[in-house]
Amino acid sequence: MGAAQTFLLVPAVVAVIILYSIAYSAWRDSRIARVGAILVFFWLLMATVAPYLPLLDPNKPYAPYLLPGAVKNGVTFLFGTDMRGRDMLSRTIWGSQRVIVWGMTATAAAYAVGSVLGLVAGYLGGWRDELISFICNVLLSFPVMVLFILILNYLGQTGFNIIVAVTVSSAPAIMRVVRGLALDARNRDYIVAARTRGENAAWIMFVEILPNVRGPLVVDACLRLGYTTVAITTLTFLGLGLQPPDPDWGLMIKEASSAALVWKLGYMLIIPAVAVSSLILGFNLIADGIREISLKD
Fold first, then answer.
1. Which residues contact 203 (CB under 8 A, 6 or more apart)?
2. For the chain, percent helix, then strand, then coil, each to nearest 5?
3. What distance in Å separates the CA atoms of residue 221 and residue 42, rounded to the nearest whole number?
4. Are the beta carbons of 71 and 211 closer than 8 angstroms?
5. CATH at 178
6. Distance from CA of residue 88 to its chain's centroid?
7. Which residues on neighbouring strands pair with residue 109, listed in sequence order?
8. Of 45, 57, 154, 252, which sits 20 to 30 A from 96 (CA to CA)?
9. Quick one: DSSP state of residue 158?
10. 3-state class (DSSP) for residue 97
11. How far apart are CA 137 and CA 139, in angstroms?
């Protein structure tokens, strides 16, 4: 977004705060979900308010190998600096933007494709079900990381291609979940009533079935967001994901992997590792909390 992000991110900051308030209130019956919401929305907030915080330039070298809390030229480096002298605090906060934006976008794209295929296969059935299931089974036969590597090596290492890779690898599993839910729902009374009213197949699939099976899909989506975050971080660590110089947690872990062999420089590895772990933990706790609330209901 360049310089425009200063203005464009203002509604995003407000939206994050409002969504957190709604989630914290709605999940009052589950302490686990609330803890997960705190972790996830903390990083969402950091990603949106990064341009407004008094942070140092994340790509500018200052002084290499400064330990956390060190002071240099009147500047305090709370998280220290990396081997190139860049501020770790600034890179950690700015790095959350890349992981969250690409992770959520890729998961949303995978759900859009997987949900459509699952509804068509589960509700319409017949040759459509057989064809879609066959293609998805073929894709599921590949190890996920191998599929990622094949796609990114062929298409190139860009954010858009990461979305394509995640969609191709995740949509088949999502399709199977949605297909099973659609098979269970298509003979229920409200679907029979909709067919009796003369509703077309698209209306029944997207207005009648999908909203009524959203519970399991929300839980699966939270878990899949964690899986996608791991995948993107791993790809970047392997040099196949988002490219430097902009900060990214996976890239920070990769760059620090050799320097962290010296124990006092371990902070360069620990800080981004804790960041990505806390985000993944947050998604998993939200999923567990939502499942806990649904069981109580």
1. 194
2. 75, 5, 20
3. 19
4. no
5. 1.10.3720.10
6. 22
7. none
8. 154
9. S
10. helix
11. 5
**Cα atoms in the 13 Å half-sphere on the side-chain side of 39:** 21
Backbone angles phi, psi at 75, to 5 degrees: -110, 130
**CA distances in angstroms from 211 to 178, 185, 197, 218, 294, listed in the order given:** 12, 11, 19, 11, 15
User: How many CA within 13 A on the CB side of residue 87?
Assistant: 17
Q: How many helices (H) and strands (E) does the chain have?
A: 12, 2
Identify the domain containing residue 175 by its residue range.
2-296
The structure's pTM equals 0.87
pLDDT tens-digit map of 70-104: 888 888 889 988 888 899 999 999 988 888 888 88
The structure tokens listed for 279 are: 């985000």
pLDDT of amino acid 113: 94
Question: Whose structure tokens read 């998604």?
Answer: 283
Q: What percent of the chain has pLDDT over 70?
A: 95
Asked whether residue 297 carries a pLDDT value surpassing 70, the answer given is no
pLDDT at 178: 92
219 close to 287: Cβ distance less than 8 angstroms:
yes
